[in-house]
Amino acid sequence: MRTKTRSKTISLALIGLFLLLYIALIGVRPLIVPDEARYGEISREMLVSGDWVVPRLNGVRYFEKPILGYWLNAAAIWVFGENAFAIRLPSAVAVSLTALLLFVWARRFSGDDSIPLLATAVFLLSFEVQAVGTFCVLDSLLSLFITAAIAALYFASQEKAVRKKTVFLLLAGLACGLAFLTKGFLALVIPVLVIVPFLFWEGQFKTFLRTVWIALVPAILIVLPWAIMIHRCEPDFWHYFFWVEHVDRFIAPRGGQHPEPFWFYVPILLGGVMPWTPLAGPIVVGLRYTNWRHPMIRLALCWLILPFGFFSACSGKLGTYILPCFPPLAFLIAVGVLKCLRKSDVRGFITGTWSVLCAACLLLTSLLLGLTFVPELSGSVALWKWGIAAAGLLLWITLCRIAISCNDAHKRLLFYCAGPVLFMFSWPLVAPAALKAKKAPGAFLLSNDARMSHDSVVVAENGLTAAVCWHYGRDNIYILGSRGEYAYGLDYADSRSRSLDIEQLKNMIVQQRGAGSVVLITKARHYAEYRERLPDPSHKKTHDGLVWVEYTPASESATLLSQLPE
After folding, report:
1. For residue 259, with 0-12 CB atoms within 10 Å meaning exposed, 13-18 middle and 19 or more buried, which class applies?
2. CB-based contacts of 266: which residues, under 8 Å, 6+ apart?
3. Domain ranges of the chain
4. Model pTM?
5. Phi, psi of 539 (to 5 degrees)
6. Which pLDDT tens digit goes with each residue over 80-130?
7. Backbone angles phi, psi at 259, to 5 degrees
8. What fold does the segment set 442-563 form as a domain?
9. I want to staple 521 with a disulfide (CB 3.0 to 4.6 A). Which of 127, 220, 460, 508 is the partner?
């Protein structure tokens, strides 16, 4: 009874932990470009236009991702309004459901709840999981559906009853279909990459192959309606989505987008799983005590190593891609640490905890020195917010010291888990200190909103366009210079006029005349290149690397006309 009460208390604490770290402050941090502005704006335009089939960004076709993430964001916007909380909520909810699936799956490993509870805590407290889970991108959703697919396939492989096996296979297919609608063909690659070697290792491949086709039925039924609709509306979608967004990005020699070296994900994983990295020693020692023949240990290894190797082998890389590796990693960390401590092998745990304590001391010292000698820090963020971060570090130091002094394994882990919570909670509060206006331009854009009118023609560079659309509620922004991620959509005949060079912008300012102003929003270094080729603006405002320029043709038309070539 005492064990059940303790498990219930810890479960409630984990729910509170999720609400504190993933929900409470997700609307506080400014919207960041390009990712959050992009995904939020596509969803906003979908909701406004009523077109739930074709993704568009700034009114231009945008075929880099399928539709489900946009649908979920649009639903959140419809409920909570056009704000940062709404567009980040689906990612946060996805983390909670992934943690729940991890708990359910991990319970099969042992007779008590210690390992599933610790695995859930490890997952929720991993730095990358929190960073991505409170950010408007699609990776948390993809990780959720991949976790559901792999867990369901595992349960199906272990189930003898035909009826239950069929149910698990249907659930796996449903998860794969939803994952495909979130981010494409990775939904098929990752589960297959994990489950096939696992089944070979378990000697079940031939037997399982006879029934695995059942999973294809719900997957196809989930994907097919939208797949047909998007093909009928935009026949070129599947060609672009498959070849450019998959072959070029993951297979092409230069990576298509985001080329990085093979070892790129090693520091990402080590940093992303903090604060558990310093416990690598006891984790490895504890796993040595584990039964390596247990199918869940084998699955966790396949689930961690093979996708990690796949993403490392691909030339195109982003730090968020390896998020599906974190559920099995959290499970292995929980197993390793608990096995080690239960064997009373505490030296590695104490050493790792001391290293965390020293790192927290160094961070606290640096923060206090920075607030004392760097005025920009206290100027960009209110002192009380820095106070929470400092208190979080101080609490982390204190709890680490208590964890070192404890003799009970569960108490050691409880204090170790509680250590970073307040510090992680403070991240959204102090984030503006690290964000320049060009990464979070919302406040700068809104400060000029009063000068905008319905007739104003707005021009922006491609990296700022999505943010301009979101904050001004427009989908008709002209793009100056490089077309960037809009290049494919701008190649369509009905969108080509939205791309401008500097001479076309000059002509546009003249042609507007009394119809309204022309507003140019760009980075300061780019405007330095443009300004000699453009007339003097009627209004200009600069801030932290951004420039907002207004041209009022009514007062300058004669001057502008004289500047045009005959």
Report:
1. middle
2. none
3. 2-30+63-342, 347-434, 442-563
4. 0.93
5. -155, 140
6. 999 999 999 999 999 999 999 999 999 988 777 899 999 999 999 999 999
7. -65, 135
8. Rossmann fold (3.40.50)
9. 460
